[in-house]
Specification:
Largest sheet: none
Structural class: mainly alpha
Number of strands: 0
Strand content: under 5%
Helix content: 40-55%
């Protein structure tokens, strides 16, 4: 068996999974979580998808439950914090644009872009401009 070059594959641990879910539940951006854990953002998304979504939502709910319990117990600061809380839904960070500006598109992307304007300069151009006509938008 040949020796593999490079870094060994990342192995998530129970402790790392907990830390990622806590950080994601607090709203920490994925890039910062990856930096704190010592892995790349794609590796974070690959190995910790559940912690970044479902588990993060559970952590946020636990936090709100504790805050609510404190507010019910008469803690005025907790009552104010609970009333003021307007948490946005936790959604995964958007995927970055695969091509930075100025980098030429690949063959398939270029073909798709060309197909959007293929009718220009032909008899189909006027037909496809009609409202309700199928095809190019």
């Amino acid at each position: 068996m040949a020796k593999r070059n490079g870094r060994p594959p990342h192995q998530p641990t129970k402790n790392l999974r907990m830390r990622v879910s806590i950080a994601a539940g607090a709203g920490m951006p994925h890039e910062e979580i990856a930096l704190a854990v010592g892995i790349s953002t794609p590796t974070l998304r690959k190995h910790y998808a559940a912690e970044l979504s479902t588990e993060a939502a559970k952590r946020r709910l636990e936090n709100f439950a504790s805050l609510f319990a404190s507010a019910q117990g008469g803690n005025v600061s907790a009552q104010k914090a609970y009333a003021a809380a307007r948490m946005a839904p936790a959604a995964p960070d958007p995927e970055p644009d695969p091509l930075p500006a100025g980098v030429p598109a690949g063959k398939k992307a270029q073909q798709a872009a060309d197909a959007k304007v293929a009718q220009v300069g032909t008899e189909w151009e006027e037909l496809l401009k009609r409202p309700g006509a199928p095809g190019v938008q």
